[in-house]
Automatic annotation (TrEMBL):
SUPFAM superfamilies: Periplasmic binding protein-like II. It comes from the Bacteria. The lineage of its organism: Bacteria, Bacillati, Actinomycetota, Actinomycetes, Kitasatosporales. This is Phosphate-binding protein. Residues 53-343 form the PBP domain.
């Protein structure tokens, strides 16, 4: 143990330029008074502190954050060579299930835990319960593959009708009205949705429910409920289908849309809004911390009216026990989570197409992580 501490490796990544940082506010949280204490009680915000971390760390869940996790794991394991971290992007629903069955040290989810899931977690979190720690923010892009169309504007009503198979052709008058200068082909629309339980689906449908309730009559959730369309597993699966299928449209995180054209979304603002990290941050600026105690679940704004505010957004949470974590994985869990919540860890996100946490949220997250037991 002493030798491990003596050989503690600290990886200084340096200051990274971060564009489009989220301006999340903690209005709505009744636990903001501890922000000043966090920097003193939590490990340094800009380093990998391996501590006593060692062994294998199993985690699974959100495919939305996979590209971020990959970047983090590369840096973390370069510093903490005695830790092997395996993250399986099975989707938010499967990740939460695996965590609640005690199969993983933590889970990634694009939706906060439901009350019944928190209750169930008390069976595996001895003396405690599972909590939501926001870690990654960003836009859900709506990608499309329409021959001859490089730019496309859609609104919530049109998107709802497309994904509910009510609008079935690309030259439909509703699409044409939003795109008067586009040469829309007489081509069948091929809408793709997630086949697995997904927090991305949950957030995408929350947007449709909030922004166009008359056109989207489903209750929402991680499972796709509308009829018709085609399905694929994971964000990468959806992106692949859209990339290779003429006439297709689908939803996935911006980091998966590098070679795919994305929809500009018409909101109440004067101009349609592009899917970008910066524009997503403007919409998420109105988010509120609604979790109680150590839980930091956020309430997002899916109908922003500010200019340039992209409305289809999500926040990915790392789900972990506040108390009762397994002794053999606790050091590695705390070390990794502290790193990804650090300035350096968050600094890697913008380049990967994600939005980093604002300082006040990240500080509270690190404070919570330091108290995990």
């Amino acid at each position: 143990m002493k030798l491990q501490r003596k050989n503690r490796r600290v990886l200084a990544l340096g200051a990274l330029a971060v564009s489009g940082a989220l301006a999340l506010t903690a209005c709505g949280s009744d636990d903001t008074s501890n922000g000043g204490d966090a920097s003193a009680s939590a490990p340094a915000a800009g380093s990998v502190d391996c501590g006593d971390a060692s062994g294998q760390l199993q985690a699974s869940g959100s495919s939305a954050q996979k590209n971020a996790i990959d970047a983090w794991v590369k840096q973390f394991t370069a510093a903490c060579k005695s830790v092997q971290l395996n993250y399986n992007p099975t989707g938010s629903g499967a990740g939460v299930t695996a965590f609640l069955q005690g199969q993983t040290a933590f889970a990634g989810s694009d939706s906060a835990l439901k009350p019944e899931e928190i209750t169930e977690s008390k069976k595996i979190c001895s003396g405690g319960q599972a909590i939501d720690l926001p870690m990654v923010g960003g836009p859900i892009a709506v990608g499309f593959n329409v021959p001859g169309v490089d730019s496309l504007v859609l609104d919530a009503s049109t998107l709802a009708k497309i994904f509910d198979s009510k609008i079935t052709n690309w030259n439909d008058k509703a699409i044409a009205a939003l795109n008067p200068d586009a040469k829309l082909p007489d081509l069948k629309i091929q809408p793709f949705h997630r086949s697995d339980e997904s927090g991305t689906t949950d957030n995408f449908t929350k947007y449709l429910i909030a922004a166009s309730p008359n056109d989207w009559k489903y209750e929402g959730g991680k499972s796709w409920q509308a009829k018709g369309g085609q399905s694929a597993s994971g964000s990468s699966g959806l992106a692949q289908q859209v990339s290779q299928t003429s006439g297709s449209i689908g939803y996935f995180e911006l980091s998966y849309a590098k070679d795919i054209k994305t929809v500009d979304v018409k909101t109440e603002a004067a101009e349609p809004v592009k899917a970008s990290t910066e524009n997503a941050s403007k919409a998420i600026a109105a988010a509120k911390v609604v979790g109680t105690g150590k839980d930091m679940a956020l309430e997002l704004d899916y109908t922003p009216s500010a200019a340039g505010a992209y409305p289809i957004t999500l926040v990915t949470y790392e789900i972990v026990c506040d108390k009762g974590n397994k002794a053999e994985t606790l050091p590695a869990t705390k070390s990794f989570l502290n790193y990804i919540a650090s300035e350096d860890g968050q600094g890697l996100l913008a380049e990967a197409g994600y939005a980093p946490l604002p300082t006040e949220i990240a500080t509270k997250v690190r404070e919570t992580i330091s108290g995990l037991s």
